[in-house]
Design goal:
Length: 221
């Protein structure tokens, strides 16, 4: 199924969702979508909100109780979950996602939507066609890369550095587009333009994406 989570915290720049699978949030940097249907004329057309996964975590539902070691010499790893089925009810996996655009009326837009996604709405994997269409343009990277990146939705401590999110997104899209080398080169050039005033940050992203293209992108920027 394409539904992968439910929004439990929302803001204008992103959201936090609870994953339907314990310990299996969507991949860091992956594209996800929230579908807002037209309901009783509330909006002219269906709106699909696109976001990039920026963080994931698994912790206890009760924040006052930290997880404790359960393994023995005989029972460890996946066997712990078979021996303790209650863990499926006492733990939860969450992921944060930064909004990077939306589709409405047959058009794609790569800027923040005017309305935040509603609480308790579903988060979906996009179709291959949606990934292709949304990522044909690269302006959305400006919403992820510093200093342009907006504050991410957060639940609990810790966040992934924005540069690593950008690199993870480019790697994920490259594979989702069938290892599209031309797209990868274009993305590297776009990032080189965005980070041209910060050489170290630029190299951090480019080498995390694909070392073979890093030198070419730097020379062309």
């Amino acid at each position: 199924m394409s539904r992968i989570g439910e929004i439990i915290e929302t803001m204008s720049t992103g959201f936090v969702a609870e994953s339907f699978e314990l310990n299996r949030p969507p991949a860091l940097g992956s594209l996800v979508v929230v579908r807002l249907p037209d309901e009783a004329g509330a909006r002219a057309t269906e709106v699909d909100l696109y976001a990039v996964v920026t963080y994931g975590r698994t912790a206890g539902i009760d924040p006052s109780r930290r997880a404790v070691r359960r393994s023995t010499d005989e029972v460890f790893d996946q066997a712990i979950y078979r021996q303790n089925p209650e863990l499926e009810r006492t733990l939860r996996t969450e992921f944060c996602a930064a909004l990077v655009g939306f589709a409405s009326g047959g058009q794609m837009y790569q800027h923040l939507p005017s309305q935040l996604p509603p609480l308790h709405f579903s988060v979906h994997h996009p179709t291959a066609q949606e990934v292709q269409r949304f990522t044909n343009r690269l302006q959305y990277l400006r919403l992820l890369a510093p200093p342009y990146a907006a504050p991410a939705a957060a639940s609990g401590a810790g966040q992934v550095p924005p540069l690593q999110v950008v690199a993870a997104n480019v790697r994920w899209v490259y594979k989702a587009r069938g290892r599209d080398e031309e797209w990868l080169k274009a993305a590297a050039r776009e990032i080189a333009t965005l980070l041209k005033s910060d050489h170290e940050a630029l190299l951090t992203v480019l080498y995390a994406i694909e070392p073979v293209h890093a030198t070419d992108a730097v020379e062309e920027s």
